[in-house]
Amino acid sequence: MKLEAAHAAHQLTGIPVSRARPLGGAAYLILLENGERLVAKSHGKPNAVKAEAASLEWLAQPAAVPVPGLRALSGQWLITDYVEPGASGPEAAEELGRGLARLHASGAPAFGSPPAGGPRDASIGLAEMQNVECETWPDFYANHRVEPYLRIAVDRGSLTDSQAQTFGQVLRRLDDLAGPAEPPARLHGDLWRGNVLWSAEGPAWLIDPAAHGGHRETDLAMLHLFGCSDLERLLGAYQEVAPLADGWRHRIPLHQLFPLLVHTVLFGGAYAAQAAGAARAALAA
C-alpha cells in the first residue's frame, strides 16, 4: 500500500515522490522531491473520497477552524496538505472551542444535509453512512443515525433484545429528550480526539471529517466520548461565543448513541454494553 500511495501522489501532483511512510490507518506521509510534504489517504469506495473532499472544503469555508487543504483526488485516493503535529495546551483548546462555536454557527441547509457537492452516500470511519435531509433533528437522528446501526447490531447478535428495547424507548421519546429546538449546525461529524490535530504552530486542526448538517451537541458529545485535552477549557470558550441550551450535559449520552452504535457494528464487544449504557443514561436524563 505504501508504494500505491507514492504512485498515487506522483500521478495526482505530477511531482516525483522521494519517500512515503505510514501515518496510521490508510494514511501516508508523502515527501515530494521538491521538498513538499503531503498526506495521501486511501478509501475503499470512491464515494468516501468524494465525501471527505467535500467535507474538507465545506468546513474550510467559514474559516473558523483550520482544516488541511485539499490538493487532489482520484478513485480511492485523497491528497491533502500535511500539518506538523505538536502538543496541546489550554490556549489552543480555548481557541478551538471558539472556532468550533463559529463553525457550528455557520450552519447547514438542513439536518442531514451533505456538504455542498458531497454525495448522499458517505462514510464514518469504516462504516457506511447516509446523509438524508430532514426537517427536524429527532427525525434525522432516529431514522438515519440510530436505527440503521441498531438494526445491524441486533441482526448480528451484538445487542440483546432487552438492550434493543431500551433503544426503542429512547427513539419513542426522542422529541422530548432532544431538548430545545436548534437550527442545523455545520458539523465535523466524527470529532473524536484522534481527529483533532494539535499543530506545532499553535492552533488545532480538524482532520478526517464526516461533515453534515446536524445538532451542535453531537460534535461536543463525541469529544466527551473518547476524551480531549483541556476539554473543560475548550467548552468554556465555546460557551463564551455560543452558549449551549440548558441541560446539554444531560444530553451527552443521547448524542453518543450514534458513534457507540457504529463502533458496536464495526467492533462489537464492549461497545455494545457501552451503547446500551448510554441509552439507559439518555432515558434517565
What can you tell me about this protein's structure?
Helix content is 46%, strand content 18%. It folds into two domains: 2-81, Phosphorylase Kinase, domain 1 (2-Layer Sandwich), CATH 3.30.200.20; 90-284, Alpha-Beta Complex (Aminoglycoside 3'-phosphotransferase, Chain: A, domain 2), CATH 3.90.1200. Helix 5 runs parallel beside helix 10 (270-284), helix 7 (216-226) crosses helix 9 and helix 9 packs antiparallel against helix 10 (270-284). The chain has ten helices and eleven strands. The chain is of the alpha+beta class and 285 residues long. The strands form four sheets. The chain has a five-stranded antiparallel β-sheet, with helices on both faces. A two-stranded antiparallel sheet has the order 6-7. Strands 8-11 form a two-stranded antiparallel sheet. The mean pLDDT is 95.
List the helices and strands and how they pair.
Elements: H1 2-13, E1 17-24, E2 27-32, E3 37-42, H2 46-60, E4 70-74, E5 77-81, H3 90-105, E6 121-124, E7 127-130, H4 137-155, H5 161-172, H6 174-177, E8 185-187, E9 196-198, E10 204-206, E11 212-214, H7 216-226, H8 231-241, H9 252-267, H10 270-284
Antiparallel strand pairs: 1-2, 2-3, 3-5, 4-5, 6-7, 8-11, 9-10
